[in-house]
Structure formats: C-alpha cells, structure tokens
Write a structure and sequence with these properties.
This protein is 49% helix and 16% strand. With 350 residues, the protein is α/β, with parallel strands linked by helices. Strands 5-4-3-6-7-9-8 form a seven-stranded mixed sheet, with helices on both faces. It has a two-stranded antiparallel sheet with strand order 1-2. Helix 6 packs antiparallel against helix 8 and helix 8 runs parallel beside helix 10.
C-alpha cells in the first residue's frame, strides 16, 4: 500500500509545478503586452484600469490578474478589488535596467516546448542538436536573460576580481569574447573601457549580425567588431579572453581551451564564467540546479553532442572537473575569482 502522506505531498508538488508551468505562458503574455510595465509604480489597479493603460481587453486582463495573484506575482486587495505589482517584483519582471531582471528566462521555457520533438528524437538516437537549430526565440531570449547579469556584475565585480586585468583594460588591451551571442557582454566591457579594443566571436551567423547592429547602435563600432568563428579557430592574440557560459556547450572544450592558451599574450588572462554548480550531483539538487539541468537537457548537452568530439559536459560541470579540463589543455593557474548564486567566475592563466 502506498504511504498516503508521501502520496499527498507529491501530489502537492505536482499541482505547484503544473501551476508554474501553465502560468509561464501568461508571464510571457504579460511581458509582451506590457502589463507588468504598466503596473510598475502605478499603485493599486483594477482590471479595467490596467486594460485601459495597455489597450487590451478587460475580460482577459481580469483573468490574467487573478492568475498572477494566485502565483504571488502581484498582490490583491479583496476589499478594493485592486491588484498591485510590488516594486521588488517589478525589478524582476519589468525593469530592463535591473540586475535582477529574470523575465528573459521565460523565453527559454517557450523554446523548450517548441523544440520538444527535436529533443525527443535526440533522446532516441543519441544525436546532438546544434545551437543554430533551435526555435529562433532562443537567441534574443538568451541575450535578455544574461544581459542584466553582465550589466550588474561584469565591470563592478568580475573584472576587479582578476589580478591586474582592470588596469590593463583601462590602459588599453586587446579582448576576445568567445561565444558572444548577441554581444551584450562584449558591449558592456567596451563601454566601460574605451581605450581597449574588442572582438566578439560566435559560430552562429544570425547572432553575429545582431551583435554588429547592437555595436553600431551603441556607438562603439570603431573599436568593437564581431566575427563568425569557432572556439577552436578564432584568430588573433589577446590580453584577455572571455567565455561567458559557453565552454560547457562545446563539443571539444579541451581543444577550445588549448586554442585559448595559444591565443593569450604571455601575461594574458582567461576570464571563464560557467554556471554555478557543485562537484557532485547531490550538490546541485536544488532550485537553481533544477533550472540548470533543464537547460542542460534541452540546450547545452545537445549542442555539445552535435559537434566534433561531443564530450557532452552539460552545464553543471563543477569547479573540480573544469580545473581538470583546463590542466589537460596546458593551464597551470585556475582560481575562483568570484561567484554569484548563478555563476562561477574563474581566473585562468598558463
């Protein structure tokens, strides 16, 4: 006979998960229609007022608000029938300049469902799925998810944690950003260090096109360029090479690391940023690990398996395994320079 307490506890977990999964599309709708932005700083609103502010149909807005209140995303005052988006929640859902913005993560969720059949086939065959093969919403969603982290931490915390690197960038250094995607990390650095020059590399040509457009809009195209190239063949010699959440996606991370070693100036530094993870599976059985393992199944592992070697690290590698790979590639210095709840920041040198 089943243990009734265990059964009921697990049913509660499932109901909670179903509520979160079913509501994810409503979060995206709230974002795309500007509902969260319209509620930001507006104080208590009823459904009619929010609909008028956003040019939407009140009847739909009424149901949406009730869903958001049930999930704790907005507060509800039963006495007045009004809803309010707390300032702290707006930082996560609506403020594009907030380092706590997480709304881009829901774009990942949308692409996961869109790519379900493709990953289903990969489970059966063991084949990979290239980064370029995913639903096209993935790429701007990825940029939007990671950009707040770079805005809030890269110049303020990560670069200062590297020995001597801030001074080099201030004086003028050559920097490569490998796996740059839409170029957010490259541009954050370029705007902070106007005496340095930057090259962003990515094998995904559509992302490089978007990065070039972003550089032109930011007014830094005179010292920032973006090129299509892979992690094992990007050209040039650099004082600083950066990999932001990209090494684990590569089929041959040791080969990529060896190429970085060759591309570094004699006193150069590799800034390696990877998802936060413990060295053992049991260290990662927590909410952050759950998010990351889902991404690893749907994106990171398939990407690696689609490439030569196909090591398939997954995104929960852990510092010990990373150090082993880096040593194998010829690096003698690996130091944890900084960390966040979501990222491990390593200083790597020959």
């Amino acid at each position: 006979m089943p243990d009734e307490k265990k059964l009921n506890a697990f049913l509660g977990t499932i109901v909670s998960d179903l509520g979160a999964a079913n509501s994810a599309v409503l979060v995206r709708i709230g974002d795309r229609l500007g509902l969260y932005k319209a509620m930001t700083g507006a104080g208590p609103l009823d459904s009619t007022e929010l609909a008028e502010r956003t040019g939407t149909a009140e009847r739909y807005v009424r149901e949406w608000l009730a869903n958001q209140a049930a999930g704790g995303y907005v507060s509800y005052d039963a006495a007045t029938g009004r809803y309010e988006l707390p300032d702290e929640h707006a930082m996560v859902l609506a403020d594009e300049d907030s380092p706590a913005l997480m709304i881009g993560g829901f774009d990942f969720t949308a692409t996961f469902f869109a790519d379900e059949d493709r990953i289903l086939d990969a489970f059966r065959t063991g084949h990979g799925v290239g980064w370029h093969e995913h639903d096209p919403r993935l790429y701007p969603g990825c940029e939007r998810f990671f950009r707040p982290l770079y805005n809030g931490s890269l110049v303020q915390s990560w670069i200062p944690a590297l020995d001597g690197v801030a001074d080099k960038l201030t004086a003028g250094a050559r920097v490569a950003d490998v796996g740059c995607g839409y170029g957010s990390s490259t541009l954050v650095l370029a705007e902070a260090f106007p005496n340095s020059t930057f090259v962003g590399f990515d094998y995904h040509d559509a992302s490089i096109a978007a990065a070039r457009k972003a550089a032109a809009q930011a007014g830094v195209a005179d010292r920032v360029r973006f090129e299509v190239a892979g992690a094992k063949d990007f050209p040039g010699s650099y004082d600083l090479v950066c990999f932001f959440d990209s090494l684990h996606d590569m089929g041959d991370p040791v080969g990529a690391a060896a190429h970085v070693r060759d591309a570094l100036a004699p006193d150069g530094t590799w800034l390696l940023v990877e998802p936060m993870a413990g060295d053992r599976t049991e260290d990662n059985l927590n909410p952050v690990g759950r998010v990351y393992y889902a991404g690893s199944v749907m994106l990171c592992t398939p990407s690696s398996l689609a490439q030569e070697v196909g090591l398939g690290l997954g995104n929960q590698v852990g510092e010990k395994r990373l150090a082993e790979l880096l040593t194998q590639a010829g690096f003698g210095h690996v130091r944890r320079a900084a960390e966040t709840p979501f990222n491990l920041i390593l200083e790597v040198r020959p």
